[in-house]
Amino acid sequence: MTMFNLFKKKHSPTPIFSVLGTDMHCHLIPQVDDGSKCLEESVDCLNMLQSVGYNKVIITPHFQHPRFPNKEEDIQRRYAELHRQATEAGVSIEMAGVAGEYRIDSGFKQRLDEPRFLKIADKYVLVEFSLNQQMMGSDEMIFDMQMMGYEVILAHPERYPYLGVMGQRMEQLKENGVLFQINVLSLGGFYGEEPKQRAYEMLERGWVEFMGTDTHNTMYGQALVDLSNDRKVQKVLEKYTFLNNTL
Fold first, then answer.
1. Sheet with 94-98: strands ordered across
2. What pLDDT band is residue 10 in, cutting at 50, 70 and 90?
3. Is 6 within a domain?
4. How far is CA 92 from CA 50, 82, 83, 178, 219, in A?
5. Which CATH number is 79's domain given?
6. What whole-number distance in Å separates Cα of residue 246 and Cα of residue 179?
7. Which of 57, 169, 210, 214 has its CA at 20 to 30 Å from residue 159's CA atom?
């Protein structure tokens, strides 16, 4: 019996995320970052995503120096193998491609010199900051990306405590054309009360273009199953328009 079947007994999922359609942020290629550890876990997570309403998934492994020194060519090869094995295992959610979650860190400038970004829908590049502090010069590097023609999505800005919603940093990023992706699980307090509060404040200000699950493993999957029964989250999905279903 798989982990997914065990979780399913604990709580029945409801497909409330069908309005989003596509999960555009998750870590389900086994053993390339801090996400899935094996094929079985990836399969369980993919099934969980489908059970709560997603019909398509774009997988976004970390590119982070020096912790996750992934290479785009290797990630594409590993994704193709995961796609083959998941299909053989009976996974029916559409696996719509692989992109990346790129940390703006000490190695990012070199990426700009030789850009090979794995893009979401051949259009967007997903970037993240450190959870502790924003790297000096990151705004300039984002601007350089935009000048190269990339549309930049900032992953989970609600999780950066130094980007206060009431301050100027988030507003400046929005004015500079940065798109925001919040984590669905933030709405349920998965990362704590402060990120939850910031996520709802950002929604109220109309600053959120995408929602992603940021699923790493079956613990995240179970949290999504639980959240799929949350009426407050259902109201968010009914009230706001997101761009996930354009991917």
1. 22-23, 56-59, 94-98
2. low
3. no
4. 8, 13, 11, 33, 21
5. 3.20.20.140
6. 14
7. 57
